[in-house]
Structure formats: C-alpha cells, structure tokens
Amino acid sequence: MTRIRKILAAASLALALLPALAGCSNTGGAHSAATSNANLPSLRIAMITHQAPGDTFWDIIRRGAEAAAAKDNVQLIYSNDQNASGQAVLIQNAIDQHVDGIAVTLPTPDALAGAIAKAQRAGIPIVAFNAGFDAWKRLGIPMYIGQDEMLAGRAAGQRLSQEGARHVLCVIQSQGEVQLEARCAGVQQGLTNGRTEKIYVNGADMPSVRSTITAKLQQDPSIDYVVALGAPFALTIVDCVKAAGSKAKVATFDTNKQLVSAIEQGSVRWAIDQQPYVQGYEAIDALWLYITNGDVLGGEQPILTGPAFLDARNIARVASYAAKGTR
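and the corresponding structure tokens:
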C-alpha cells in the first residue's frame, strides 16, 4: 500500500471514530478535540517562502500555519529564502525529505518552475499561496490562497484618487518579484487624477532604504503620497518623510503589530490587508484536506484573502488581534 493510501485509510478511520469519541467523552470539548487530533494521520508538510530576514509580516503567516498544523496533526517544516535559487534548493530539500505536501510562495514563478515540476513528479501535492496569482494554474498547482495583487493595487489607486493624490511614489523593495510589480501597476491603473512613479530599493538593507527615500523626497517636493509594499518599509518611510521635511502622506500594503499602531497614531493613513494569518492557516489546512480526502477548494479559482482596507474607522477592532500576533 502506498503512503498516500495509508494516509487516506488512516484518515477514514479517524473520521469514522470522531462521532464515537465525541459521544463517549464526559469531560467536554477540550478532551474530545485532543482525542480527535491524536487519531488523525500524522503528516509532514513543508512551507517554503520568500521571507526576507527581519520581515515580521511572515511571522503572522507562520502563526496561522502553526495553528492549522496543530489542529491537523501536521509536522510543519518551515524554511525561507528571498532568492529564487535558494527557494528552489529548499523545494528540492523537501522532495529529498519525502514530505507529504508542500505549501510554497511563487514570487519568481519561472525560476521555480523546474523545482515545482520535480516535486510533482515525485507525487508530492502542492498548494501555492501569497505570491504567484498569475502563475499557479500554468504550473499545474490545484489551489492558490492569497490576494489578487493587481486588484488590490487598483483599489489603492482609486482610494488615492479619492484622497486627491497627484504624485504617488510606489516603493518596490525587491526587484523582479511579480506580486510587487503587480501592486504598483495596479496603483497606476487606479490613480485617475495623478501620476505614479516607481522607485526600487534594497529591502535587505534598511539604512539604504532610508537614505534612498529621504533623498528622493528632498529632491522632489511634488510627491504627496508614498505607497510602501510592506509594513516594515512603511514605518521606515514615515521617518524618511520627517527627515526630508516632506508633506507626503504614507500608505502601505500589509501590516504588522507596529503598523497597526502607526495607523492608530495617524502616521500611516491606511493599509491594505491581505490577511496573512488566513493565508498560512488555509495553505496547511487545504493541503491536509487534499491529502486525506482529495478535496480541492476554490473551484479552480483563487481563494482570495484580500484586499481589505485598515484605517482609522476599523483599526481599533483589529488592534486587539494584532496584539496577539494574528493580524
């Protein structure tokens, strides 16, 4: 019997036992849940991302993945490399470890296509999430969990138009990542009353980001909005605006605990939230369902987790979740 068949058989037995286990428990739901988890098939799932060092956005994704792994009796193997070649090596490592499934981000899909194909030939199910919205289907991946980045960018551009923006600086922290390019392209499409200018910075070197953006704002006082594509960069850009004596307002994609506080204090006007906790959670849970029950979510369409705006109107409610590290 193959490993997948053994897993399916174990899953069927576990599911059959659940009603009996629930009925026999006389100590409430906590005992029943623990017993049910113990009877689930044990899986090993690799989560491979393009997380850059120090980017706390990914901490939220990982917490979601860990919560789903704990529920589903999954051993989560998390690894990350912001370079495409390094990410491909991590995929090969997962293949060599004979994992039961791989959840992967696709910021540079063409560079990762070969490694993805190797995993598929090895019979390892794959779910894509967070990056690769336009590539997952052509790579033969059955599910994608994340945000339509072009749609999110257009929504940001439309809001900037409503707020009277005339010259928007869109800051890309990693050149060549498809999801970041799509965000800025979307902003340009949505901004009907002004113009968008892109600037590339080295996101792995925050002092360099600070000096580059400060110099740009000093050079061009017509910039009235700066849009960051990640929370840590937005917080740095707030300092750049002050240092440059600029009147530019700051908005961003993505959040972390500090960014939520910045919106509360008014130094960042708003953020587009793609709900990273949901992405991490659903990537693992969807793989578990696929492996143990053959389920494919989304009906061949992406499972969207955003975009949603966080601003002064709703940030107080979100802050309580941010304090727990899940928003």
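(Above: one complete record from the training split.) Residues 20 and 209 are 58 Å apart (CA to CA).
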